Amino acid sequence: MSFLGGYQGKILRVDLTSKSFREEELSPELARKFVGGAGFGIKRMFDEVDPLADALSPENKLVFAPGPLTGTDAPCASRMSVTAKSPLTGTVAVCMTGGYFPAELKFAGYDILIIEGKAEQPVYLMIDKGRVSIRPAKQLWGTTTTDCEFLLKEQLGDQNFRIACIGPAGERLVRMACIVNERRTAGRKGLGAVMGAKNLKAIAVRGHLKVPVADPAVFAAAKKFFFGKMKESPALYPEFSQHGTPMVVDVACGMGIFPAKNWTATGEFEPVDTLGTAANAARKIGKEHCYTCPVACSQLKLTDPASPYAGAMSVPEYETLYSLGGQAGVANLDSVVAADRLCDELGIDTISAGVAIGFAMELYERGVIGKQETGGLELRFGNHQAMVEMIKNIGFRRGLGELLGEGVKRAAERIGQGAEQYAMHVKGLELPGYDVRGAKAHGLNFATSYNGADHNKGYAYQEIFGIPAPRAVDRFAAEGKGWLTKWNQDIRCVTCDCVTMCAFLMDMAVPDAALENAAGMLRGVTGMDFTPEEVWRVGERIQNVARVFNIRAGFTAADDTLPRRLMTEPIKAGSSKGHMVPPEELQLMLAEYYQERGWTPQGVPTPEKLLSLDLGEALPYV
Amino acid sequence: MSFLGGYQGKILRVDLTSKSFREEELSPELARKFVGGAGFGIKRMFDEVDPLADALSPENKLVFAPGPLTGTDAPCASRMSVTAKSPLTGTVAVCMTGGYFPAELKFAGYDILIIEGKAEQPVYLMIDKGRVSIRPAKQLWGTTTTDCEFLLKEQLGDQNFRIACIGPAGERLVRMACIVNERRTAGRKGLGAVMGAKNLKAIAVRGHLKVPVADPAVFAAAKKFFFGKMKESPALYPEFSQHGTPMVVDVACGMGIFPAKNWTATGEFEPVDTLGTAANAARKIGKEHCYTCPVACSQLKLTDPASPYAGAMSVPEYETLYSLGGQAGVANLDSVVAADRLCDELGIDTISAGVAIGFAMELYERGVIGKQETGGLELRFGNHQAMVEMIKNIGFRRGLGELLGEGVKRAAERIGQGAEQYAMHVKGLELPGYDVRGAKAHGLNFATSYNGADHNKGYAYQEIFGIPAPRAVDRFAAEGKGWLTKWNQDIRCVTCDCVTMCAFLMDMAVPDAALENAAGMLRGVTGMDFTPEEVWRVGERIQNVARVFNIRAGFTAADDTLPRRLMTEPIKAGSSKGHMVPPEELQLMLAEYYQERGWTPQGVPTPEKLLSLDLGEALPYV
After folding, report:
1. Rounded to whole angstroms, how far apart are CA atoms A440 and A422?
2. Cα angle for residues A253, A259, A261 (degrees, 5° grid)
3. DSSP assignment, residue A176?
4. Which residues of chain B have pLDDT under 70?
5. Are residues B300 and B351 in the same domain?
6. What is the mean pLDDT of chain A?
7. Which of A377, A445, B339, B460 has the smallest CB count inside 10 Å?
């Protein structure tokens, strides 16, 4: 069996310890069972990395994998997974990123890029039309991400290289460091620190190949179907295309689930006027898109020239408006734009940074820490100057920033004095911007995602946008969330993280036809006869492989939980006032979820389930 | 007569008012008489622009012109002039810039690009392999220069465009705004404000043509000669290549001519240890070069991660180490690097900005202005945070920054209270970093340059580096400076600003053979039989055209002067202690200079001189 389309058929494996690399064949069986992207990444981790390894040791690996559609002219499919064991959570971790780098990696001939070992000195990796080399990065080390990109393109003498790199945070092994490619990031779970631990500053890639399409007629029909759905979508044009994710500020505030001031003021602090759609529109100067994307949801914002942050430009997404806005009690969009840009330049995840700073603000206001700990900063909710200073301290590992950069879980452990009750995380990953007390499918997803509290790995758009597909949902009810969460996790995993189509588009264009759409695209591009059911099974398969990896890493059902605050303190105001997720509700949801998954009541996949998913390799571990 | 080599033979004339453009033939006579670069620019200004026009009106023009060597493989010749009437000085003004843009403009087929009129709305100009278009710049307006470049390349869908643009300062018509192309600038005299006044945010250019060479054998011999001289140069390798212009901090301090604290503390404040060669070497992460340059003198500096300016990267040249360092009383290299980068991002000339801030610091320390004027800033010498804030205020025209951005001459006039005695400028252009009280050829050059106090238009390297070519010099003596200054101005004008070879290389590699070198290169590339004498005559011709333009603009010999402080206050300490330029010395030097130039004692070119230079067109004005 060989590939007819969608794949280049090759894996590039780079060993930084020995400064060597080799090409391997991509197995068609792997492609059939795991499709691409996160599927490839998680499977490689499962097969190759000891789940008990130190995430910042040379034993960890970093796997970059686009999907079969990436680099074709399929809309909204230029995405790529980055996978490693997370230094923040200890779980297997997948980040998705877009832009142009993913397609360029395919053009360079590779379906998977595996980085192993650790270079003795800082290096960068160059992949250029069949040539691969590992080169000294002395002239790049220490630079911010856009400077790194600028310098590397100049050094390479070709501006058309696409670059993924880390900033000062990744170099310093900050556990919330991200990987930046242009204005996109593989943002969460500290994968930038994994790259830094390997002394790998950047990857530059330039390709010249095309991505073959197996059956152009079937592929054309699949694209036509998708384009038709996009045009019909009530949310996509013009709203989402024009305003992007900041629209969600209005929605979340309306629902009373916009988390504020370290989740103490949800429903009370609702800065729609200053951080919502209209405020963002007033700062918009343009938009950007990923390769082949007709939507271009990235909304470029420029600060007010009268602001102390004049001149700063960035694309603050909803999550950043939450984390560096509401969570920190900051209602000033210019501050958020500047802080967002700073995070991108230093290579820091905006969600984890904002949650960690909000956590520290609560500790400061409660007197648990003082100016001695903050280096003199008045670290109160709403102090955006202090927030910006603290971001720098996180990125450069200075003072309290060093502690906060370890994530709120480790920071709370080291601070003691009950600080852990204010640490908003699941499995060490800081919470995204949906107060699950008023959106319980989100809560179950946060509790069970293999990544820790990751909204992207099973996003319950049904709760937020009222979309009744595949089922209508009552956001306050615990019942029925097991099935829905499994569905959201499985389907998003395969359609978005493996195929790889943009999550925003899946939710807004084909919530009723995600599997049919993905199956059609896959049939067209690969020539393999994927059915919708088989596509779903791929998603479920990957969820189970990830679960078994985490079990081997020491995780149990006890880790499928939520911060105590959300189980004991009801929301105080707004549209979700009075709601919380009492422990018994969480247990009910978990039990339902495990049952739907075919796992034991202790959350362990049964041998039967694994065999039914053709996962014999996982049997020894359950 | 047609061109055999060196020229593409075409001028691109763009009228922003009518949004139209046309190509014109470059006249071989123009090329013979004015060679290229500044020669073309000044001649176009002389012929086309009313010297009494408002520099910020649509009547002014902006002329970009590379030289005949630009785009060939001649070393160190990828330079370009930018010419306009200056909004800072009111004179005709030439800036030279390097990098890659100049060669790309030649590859695109043009020897001269003339920008006329004013667009109604912000636009950018795209020149792409024979296609020219004027496009809306709404999505770029307001951005900093590197963001503008990043966004424009993305919009154009080709990273290989080369871009010149203005920042927020140019948009706001700040009279010390510059034009930035990559990490190079057409820095002085406010040409960025001229671009801003035309509503032109950026020029993107991509070419596909080669620059023809008329006589490859002669050209090869000329290059061999130059390379030989470069290798023999005692200063070039490894010192200058390794350390670049920051070396001059050590030299200038050693000579006691490093101006400090608005020229009140020359010889007293000599921060060699913190701003000199060794300090710069400690912050160096790499280097950059212009197209075809084997020297790569640009030294990339990265701030200390422990500094409040952690993460900032720039290439602070000597002049910036003076202006944002010594002049402001700032001895901290990290501050200078960060302030330098900020100037580049906002599109502000570092020399004028630093001199203006140092001027304001003196006023503040003397109590002429207070916190009410500074917006609460403690604007004392050495306060680098205040300096950085004031740079932002200049760039965004806020508070005192609006006044300082007008230049020290206008600022002093508006402030009154004797402030003009602290305003260090000639003809409105802020002084570069050589205290002329201990380097009198520099003084005469500052006093007489057609640009105002511009070190680059007749740099007396003989005084600074002790090079005895063409003549040895006593830096403290007034006598003999007339001849030397004329020689320096003429020769640098033609070899550097027209041919266009890098000034650094001229001084260090061929101080004894600058004309022979240029003539050989010109013969090889153009096929025209240039002699060294004729090359010199081109330089002298251009100096005279510029002088007549300025006379028409209202300048007289009374404007050929120096700030009163330098004529009345001796240097208080250091190697030049006790020296100054008393008025009678300046008059002696000026008389000698006018005589050497064949000008009247009132500094007006005689008809005989103009006719001997074949400048009949200038006769009506003298």
Report:
1. 20
2. 125
3. T
4. 1
5. yes
6. 97
7. A377
Mean pLDDT of A114-134: 96
Spatial neighbors of B276 by CB under 8 A, at least 6 apart, are: B246, B249, B250, B253
Q: Could you tell me the residue range of the domain that residue A486 belongs to? A: 436-562+582-621
CB within 8 Å: B396 and A311: yes
The pLDDT assigned to A11 comes to 98
Q: What is the pLDDT of residue B1?
A: 57
Measured torsion, CA atoms of residues A463, A467, A468, A471, in degrees rounded to the nearest 10: -50
Q: Which residues contact A493 (CB under 8 A, 6 or more apart)?
A: A38, A39, A457, A458, A539, A542, A543
In chain A, the number of structural domains is 3
Residues of chain B contacting residue A392, judged by C-beta atoms under 8 Å apart: 310-311
Q: Give B24's strand partners.
A: B11
| pLDDT at position B506 | 86
Helix axes A333-346, A145-156, angle to 10 degrees: 50
Max intra-chain CA distance, chain A:
67
In SS3 terms, B496-558 reads as: HHHCCCCHHHHHHHCCCCHHHHHHHHHHHHHCCCCCHHHHHHHHHHHHHHHHHHHHHCCCCHH
Contacts with A138 from chain B: Cβ below 8 Å: 285-286
Amino acid identity of residue B374, one-letter, is T
Instruction: Classify residue B1: in a domain, yes or no.
Output: no
Identify the closest residue of chain B to A286 by CA–CA distance: B139
Q: Which of B366, B393, B424 is the last residue of a domain?
A: B424
CATH number for the domain that contains residue B589? 1.10.599.10
Nearest Cα to Cα of residue B292 among B66, B447, B492: B66
Q: Could you give phi then psi for residue A581, rounded to 5 degrees?
A: -115, 85
- Interchain contact, B311 vs A168, CB within 8 Å: yes
ipTM of predicted assembly, 2 dp = 0.94
Q: What is the DSSP string of A272-330?
A: HHHHSHHHHHHTEEEEE--TT-SS--EEEEE--TTSTTTT-EE---HHHHHHTTGGGT-
Q: Residue B571 has which token pair?
A: 């240097």
- A537-564: pLDDT as tens digits: 999 999 999 999 999 999 999 999 999 9
Classify residue B314: in a domain, yes or no: yes
Is B507 found in the same domain as B616? yes
Q: How far apart are CA B169 and CA B69, in angstroms?
A: 32
Do B249 and B277 contact (CB within 8 A), yes or no?
Answer: yes
pLDDT tens, residue by residue, B303-320: 999 999 999 999 999 999
Average pLDDT, stretch A61-76? 97
Q: Are residues A372 and A450 in the same domain?
A: no
Question: Nearest 5°: phi and psi at B167?
Answer: -100, -165
Band (A1; pLDDT cuts 50, 70, 90): low
User: A57 exposed, middle or buried (CB, 10 Å; 0-12, 13-18, 19+)?
Assistant: middle
Indicate if B71 and B196 belong to the same structural domain.
yes
Q: Which residues does chain A have within 8 Å of residue B142's beta carbon, measured at their own beta carbons?
A: 285, 302, 305
> What is the arrangement of strands in the sheet containing B184-186, beginning at the earlier edge strand?
B131-136, B123-128, B200-206, B162-165, B179-181, B184-186
pTM: 0.96
Q: Using the beta-carbon criterion (under 8 Å), do B142 and A168 form an inter-chain contact?
A: no
Where is A573: in which H helix or E strand? none
In a domain, A243, yes or no: no
Indicate the SS3 state at residue B127: strand
Predicted local distance difference test score (pLDDT) of residue A183? 86
Residues of B in Cβ contact (< 8 Å) with A147: 313
Q: Examine the domain organization and report whether B370 and B480 are in the same domain.
A: no
Q: Within a domain: residue B569?
A: no
Query: Which one, of B523, B515, B460, lies nearest residue B491 by Cα?
Result: B515
Residue B296 exposed, middle or buried by CB count within 10 Å (0-12, 13-18, 19+)? middle
Give B570's DSSP letter: -
Nearest to A305 among B140, B168, B345 (CB): B168
User: Residue B364 is part of a domain; what is its CATH number?
Assistant: 1.10.569.10
